[in-house]
Amino acid sequence: MTVVRTVLGDVAAGQLGRVDAHDHLFFRSVRLPGEEQDDATAAGLELAEFARLGGGTLVQWTPYGLGRGAAELPRLSRESGAHVVAATGLHQARHYADGVVESVAGPRLAELFVRELTEGIVPGVRAGMVKVAGTYHGLDTHARWTMAAAAEAHHATGATVGVHLEHGTAGLEVADLLCDELGVAPTSVILGHLNRFPDDRALRELAATGCFLGFEGPSRAHHATDWRLFDALASLIDAGHLNQLLIGGDTVVASARATTGEGPGAPYLPRVLWPRLRREFGAGAEAAIAITNPARAVALSVQGRGELREKPTPADSPVR
């Protein structure tokens, strides 16, 4: 049985329901002073509203050191009825207070990731994926270091590697490094923030890598490209890449919550985006993007004690 590691334990991938494939209930960065998402009550309201509108699972991409709220996530998941997947990993160095990245540079970074995936971020709360980040149109030394550790953690645990692409760029470099050099299967890699660089030709080239393609939003910071989302999805669907597409909310700042801020927040997916997917592309395509694809994307590719289990390739998905 293929499983997904949630904050309440492993569940069958087929039990996730509709999935917000990239979001944040908790997030804190030195780059966003005054916009910290550190209020558990507000996070609970957001998750509860997401669930009330039909959301089944939220995948939180907040990595190590950025205020994940790990101790609160199990309670919020139980109270809302929605599954939550937490992340280990490391973001760009610029998001951290002085000394945080240096504090994990001495120990082997992969060991930290594996420990949080297998033993827990806090007792009883295990991460279900690894989140790392590229840089603008390239990969710096920090990105290569964190991605090498993420690949090692993947090989040890089967966890998916989700990648923040800065403004949606450097996807090919990431795929070359993770998949070709470091041996991570493309079906265990999510290339995120592609809504921020909606170049149809570049997107089709990325799709040819076999990686999952993440589109998040709408975003206040990137509203200039929000209107291109459905054009980008249509182009990729027409080119045969429906089974690689993912949608997330990516609520990074407190003011963007739907329930305690100005929105749109995680509830925007069940309220607006998923119904629009059905209207634009049909129920089968909406089910692929909201249910089938994310279930495959975040499923562990290791079963038992080190026994490898291949994730299905996009062509193997039952939803076309």
UniProtKB/TrEMBL annotation:
UniProt keyword terms in alphabetical order: Hydrolase, Metal-binding
PROSITE patterns: PHOSPHOTRIESTERASE_2
MF terms (GO), sorted A to Z: hydrolase activity; zinc ion binding
Modified residues (N6-carboxylysine): K131
Cofactor: record remark: Binds 2 divalent metal cations per subunit.
Positions with a binding annotation for Zn(2+) 2: K131, H164, H193
Binding annotation for Zn(2+) 1: H22, H24, K131, D250
A Pfam family: PTE
Requisite cofactors: a divalent metal cation
Keyword Metal-binding: yes
PANTHER family for the chain: PHOSPHOTRIESTERASE-RELATED, PHOSPHOTRIESTERASE-RELATED PROTEIN
Family: Belongs to the metallo-dependent hydrolases superfamily. Phosphotriesterase family.
Protein's UniProt name: Phosphotriesterase
Taxonomic classification: Bacteria, Bacillati, Actinomycetota, Actinomycetes, Kitasatosporales
